[in-house]
Design a protein that fits this description.
heterodimer, A: mainly alpha, Fumarate Reductase Iron-sulfur Protein, Chain B, domain 2, 10 helices, about 0% strand, B: alpha/beta, Glutathione S-transferase Yfyf (Class Pi), Chain A, domain 2, Rossmann fold, 2 domains, four-stranded parallel β-sheet, 8 strands, about 10% strand, globular, binds iron/sulfur cluster
């Protein structure tokens, strides 16, 4: 976890967040338009419609046992089409944040990509994609994962699309990250 | 016509050709771009998955810089994720004074504050509504005649904020392609998701989405898929053999401003076609007007 973004996430934030999510989807009428609109539904273990049902019922552990919200690619199709006009993509993001906070505290790698990415932003000011992916592979501790991206890496290199990190904005955002952390730790 | 320009991280590294072609195509149209000095990452789609305040403060910093250094200019962001993140700050602070107060408090550590009014614009919006289609057509010296182009809008430029086009059936890019002399295709998947950053975190989920899009474009008879997002472009061009193993030759995928450059008579290298990862053999030589 050495490179993860330290998220303060005090204990009560989780319940506060789930309450906020429940409110976001409270008016859900279980019509299933969100599921039917979701491009990633085939890869999900729980249909979005059912996820919102669990949220309304407050079944936190069932929600976090599922990886449905981690498969949301922020396409906003469900948000656009939900007949109740619910902010579903935002609710998915809120679940990702809760999961990230839980993992920062108790370990786990389901949200590692987001945390590694943001840590790269904190350090370099502008994303350094090569460095970011390298660290992601390290953070995931899965020796086979890099192989799935190796051919692409070579092609990107050949096209001169990637290289060693360099950014004049390095460190520029450290203060802002610290300040946000302090603000979010407030009760 | 002048904009405060926010290239964003992708356009400075893996999508350099989007940056260069955007600058060149717009320069040809008499549009001036002033890069926001010292800009930093907007947080992409990762920030909101970790911290809500950070997901507003990161783009907010760039809007604050634009307001201070380039006052009064609309902010132009070619990348879809950057555009949405910047626009979200504009929209949220319009309705929610508390959001503005919190962003400003975070930015105060850098002696920055959000400007009173912000206006974030997309490349397509600027092209169609500010520059105008007749002005684009006027600059065309080698029309892309006979080129069947599938406009691919992706997701975040019209959802959740449909600022300048229909979020289910967008048409602005088709209009620009038409002005270039190409034949824009009406196809099913022009605004469906390519998987975005899932390609990095959940590749097995993203590959089928890319496969569907490539097949639909082929079935519609496309010579080229035109994009306006570095993530869409990368997903559609770099994973073709994995996502669509039966697909014959590469299906050309190019940024819209690259196609504009060709129609404006620029050499393919001028708009960095050498960087594209899927260009069908003969695309640059063979397309009638491109020879
Ligand atoms: S589309 Fe909206 S109302 Fe229908 S099931 Fe989904 S969240 Fe509920
Ligand atoms: S925003 Fe997320 S949950 Fe909604 S349709 Fe898109 S991928 Fe599915």
């Amino acid at each position: 976890m050495a490179t993860s973004v330290k998220n303060p996430a005090p204990q009560d934030e989780a319940s506060r967040n789930l309450k906020a999510i429940r409110e976001m989807v409270a008016a859900c009428m279980q019509c299933g338009t969100c599921t039917a609109s979701c491009p990633n539904y085939p890869s999900m273990d729980l249909a979005p419609r059912r996820l919102w049902r669990l949220a309304v019922m407050g079944l936190t552990e069932d929600i976090f046992a599922s990886r449905t919200f981690l498969l949301c690619s922020n396409c906003y199709a469900c948000t656009l089409r939900c007949p109740r006009g619910l902010p579903l993509t935002e609710a998915m993001a809120a679940l990702k944040r809760m999961a990230a906070a839980r993992e920062t505290k108790w370990g786990g790698r389901k949200t590692q990509f987001y945390r590694t990415f943001l840590d790269n932003v904190r350090r370099w000011g502008r994303v350094q994609e090569t460095d970011m992916m390298m660290r992601y592979f390290l953070d995931m501790k899965d020796p086979l994962l890099p192989l799935r991206y190796t051919p692409l890496g070579f092609r990107l290199l050949r096209k001169g699309k990637i290289g060693p990190p360099h950014s004049a904005q390095s460190g520029r955002l450290a203060g802002l990250f610290e300040k946000v952390k302090e603000m979010e730790a407030r009760p | 016509m002048k904009y405060a320009y926010y290239p964003g991280c992708s356009l400075s590294e893996t999508a350099k050709e989007f940056d260069v072609s955007t600058r060149k195509a717009l320069a040809r149209l008499g549009v001036e771009l002033a890069e926001i000095p010292d800009w930093t990452c907007c947080g992409a789609s990762a920030a909101e998955a970790v911290s809500e305040l950070l997901s507003l403060a990161l783009p907010g910093r760039n809007l604050a810089l634009a307001g201070r250094e380039l006052p009064g200019l609309d902010v132009l962001a070619p990348c879809s994720a950057c555009y949405l993140n910047l626009l979200r700050v504009e929209k949220k602070t319009e309705r929610d004074p508390d959001a503005r107060r919190r962003i400003d408090e975070a930015l105060s550590v850098q002696n920055l504050a959000l400007p009173g009014t912000m206006r974030v614009r997309h490349l397509l919006d600027a092209l169609v509504n500010d520059v105008g289609l007749p002005a684009i057509a006027e600059k065309v010296v080698s029309p892309l005649e006979g080129l069947k182009a599938a406009p691919y809008y992706g997701c975040q430029i019209l959802r959740p904020y449909a600022e300048f086009d229909d979020p289910e059936r967008p048409r602005t890019m088709a209009l620009v392609l038409e002005a270039l002399g190409a034949e824009p295709l009406d196809w099913r998947l022009s605004a469906t998701c390519c998987g975005a950053s899932l390609m990095a975190s959940k590749k097995e989920a993203a590959l089928p989405l890319v496969g569907n899009i490539l097949r639909a474009a082929r079935d519609a008879g496309a010579d080229v898929v035109a994009t306006v997002c570095p993530l869409c472009q990368m997903n559609l061009e770099a994973y073709q053999s994995e996502a669509d193993p039966k697909g014959p030759v590469p299906l050309t995928v190019a940024y819209l401003p690259q196609l504009m450059g060709l129609a404006f008579g620029m050499d393919p290298e001028e708009v960095m076609f050498g960087k594209n990862m899927a260009v069908a053999p003969g695309f640059l030589a063979g397309a009638p007007a491109l020879a």
